[in-house]
Write a structure and sequence with these properties.
Elements (H helix, E strand, L loop, with lengths): L3 H21 L3 H18 L3 H24 L17 H24 L5
Length: 118
């Protein structure tokens, strides 16, 4: 299990992801660069890099593909688009969401398996 510093650092990484997109979305290439830097920190501090990378890439591709389908069918649209009606940074945000859900699910499972350890 991660120590408390790692847990809080991961939470800070996810918060920085949201803040980066919220405040810099009008400069998409800057968002991409910032997210790559922020997310690389996640891989530096995590213990299971291979599993996390697979989740990051898999959820990034699947999430962006689902969004693309919805955009192409007219279900929704983005105000600032770069390619195929969606921002360049969208797969990176989906990948980050996958890592967040992985970490959250591991903490919840650990809590219910070992309630006295938390």
């Amino acid at each position: 299990m991660d120590n408390w510093q790692t847990i809080w650092l991961k939470r800070l990484i996810f918060l920085c992801t949201l803040i980066t997109v919220a405040f810099l979305f009008q400069t998409p290439l800057l968002v991409v660069v910032m997210l790559l830097i922020i997310h690389s920190l996640y891989f530096v501090i995590t213990k299971d890099r291979k599993e996390s990378l697979i989740i990051y890439l898999g959820v990034g591709v699947l999430g962006a593909s689902a969004e693309l389908l919805c955009i192409l069918t007219g279900a929704w649209e983005y105000s600032n688009t770069d390619t195929f009606g969606m921002p360049y940074w969208l797969p990176l945000v989906w990948g980050s969401a996958g890592l967040f859900m992985k970490d959250l699910s591991m903490r919840v499972c650990n809590h219910f398996q070992n309630p006295t350890d938390n």
